[in-house]
């Protein structure tokens, strides 16, 4: 049976920081590839870059897997109900902030670009890029409810996950969850709305559950399978790139799911081998990466509206947009963190510097 996670797994923090950082790069490409996105650039391209396609197959999936592990850590350290209360306190205000401030700012950007108040890429998405917070809070509530009301079932799920993730089973389970979500996504395309996104719940809820009930034992198993995951990743990459998505949509989606699953396996396996240690840089990034992610998309909209009239060359404009987004989002985060409004971006007050503990206390939002 998986052991309870009571010690922080540092490489998961590194993966979380890296995934959110890459996601910001992904979003800075939206003005160039989505025809009806806010504040379009004059430099339009036919398709997303290889980096964007690579990121889109695994980054959010990895974040939900890590979030499940983080909840397991909190439950093992503080108990189920305190863990739920802590998540409500951290996630609830950013959801309201996204609904009442961030989404209206992006809608105003759409209006300024002549697209109407809801002219974003997915206009029906009320929270826009913050959609994953309600999903995350839902999964936290469901898992905690099961742990509290059916503890024997939770123990059985521990044992089941331990059995099915032995050996290469850990990679198989990752691939099975992502493949199921991919097939459902072809049949019923994703909506990003919490009430009717079956494909999203299958994919992200399944990975959240795997991260939670996998316990501390899941990560050494993925570490042991890292070379197998790397070989399968190479094979899946060939298939994913070779298959025509238009002619063979389901097959292409399945190849992409296997590619994403093996990428997660490689990152977890080699991450635990190489990066499972604390550092001052991780402490700084771990506190700031989620607030920067929450803030970055309205910043992208504002910067794109400001850069478009300058008629810069595409490389210069892309560079200015990316670096400006990171710098301005970080500056806004630091300003909010220094104020009483820090709770809006999911932060609690930092401890006094003289009593600042090690990185273990820098719990993710």
Overview features:
single chain; mainly alpha; 14 helices; globular
Describe the fold and architecture.
- The chain is mostly helical and 365 residues long.
- The model is unreliable at 117-124 and 354-365 (pLDDT under 50).
- The chain is 69% helix and 0% strand.
- It has one domain (10-361).
Summarize the helices and strands and which ones pair or pack.
Blueprint: H1 10-27, H2 30-33, H3 50-56, H4 59-78, H5 80-112, H6 132-149, H7 151-164, H8 169-187, H9 198-213, H10 218-224, H11 226-242, H12 249-274, H13 280-307, H14 314-337
Helix pairs in contact: 1-3, 1-4, 1-12, 1-13, 4-5, 4-9, 5-6, 5-13, 6-7, 6-9, 8-9, 8-12, 10-12, 11-12, 13-14
Helix content: 55-70%
The number of helical elements comes to 14
The fraction of residues in strands falls at under 5%
Quote the average pLDDT. 86
Q: Please report the total strand number as a whole number.
A: 0
How many domains, as an integer?
1
Query: C-alpha Rg, in Å?
Result: 20 Å
Summarize the structure.
The protein has about 375 residues and is mostly helical. The protein has one domain.
């Amino acid at each position: 049976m998986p052991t309870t996670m009571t010690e922080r797994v540092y490489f998961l923090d590194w993966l979380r920081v890296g995934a959110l950082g890459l996601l910001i790069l992904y979003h800075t490409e939206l003005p160039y590839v989505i025809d009806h996105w806010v504040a379009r650039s004059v430099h339009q391209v036919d398709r997303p870059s290889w980096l964007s396609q690579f990121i889109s197959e695994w980054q959010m999936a990895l974040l939900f897997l890590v979030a499940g592990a983080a909840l397991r850590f909190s439950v093992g350290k503080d108990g189920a109900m305190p863990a739920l209360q802590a998540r409500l306190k951290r996630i609830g205000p950013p959801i309201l902030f996204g609904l009442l401030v961030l989404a209206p700012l992006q809608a105003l950007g759409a209006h300024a670009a002549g697209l109407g108040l809801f002219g974003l890429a997915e206009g029906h998405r009320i929270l826009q890029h913050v959609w994953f917070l309600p999903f995350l809070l839902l999964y936290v509530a469901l898992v905690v409810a099961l742990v509290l009301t059916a503890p024997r079932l939770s123990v059985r799920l521990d044992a089941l996950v331990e059995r099915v993730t032995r050996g290469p089973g850990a990679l198989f389970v990752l691939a099975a969850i992502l493949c199921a979500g991919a097939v459902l996504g072809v049949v019923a395309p994703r909506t990003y709305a919490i009430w009717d996104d079956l494909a999203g719940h299958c994919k992200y809820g399944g990975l959240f559950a795997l991260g939670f009930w996998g316990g501390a034992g899941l990560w050494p198993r993925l570490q042991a399978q890292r070379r197998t995951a790397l070989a399968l990743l190479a094979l899946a990459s060939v298939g994913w790139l070779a298959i025509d998505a238009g002619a063979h949509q389901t097959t292409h989606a399945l190849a992409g799911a296997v590619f994403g699953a093996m990428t997660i396996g490689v990152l977890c396996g080699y991450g635990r081998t190489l990066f499972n240690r604390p550092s001052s840089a991780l402490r700084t990034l771990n506190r700031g990466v989620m607030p920067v992610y929450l803030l970055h998309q309205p910043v992208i909209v504002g910067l794109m509206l400001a850069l478009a009239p300058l008629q810069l060359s595409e490389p210069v404009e892309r560079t200015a947009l990316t670096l400006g987004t990171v710098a301005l989002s970080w500056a806004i985060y630091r300003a909010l963190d220094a104020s009483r409004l820090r709770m809006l971006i999911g932060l609690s007050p930092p401890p006094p510097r003289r009593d600042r503990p090690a990185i273990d206390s820098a719990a993710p939002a």
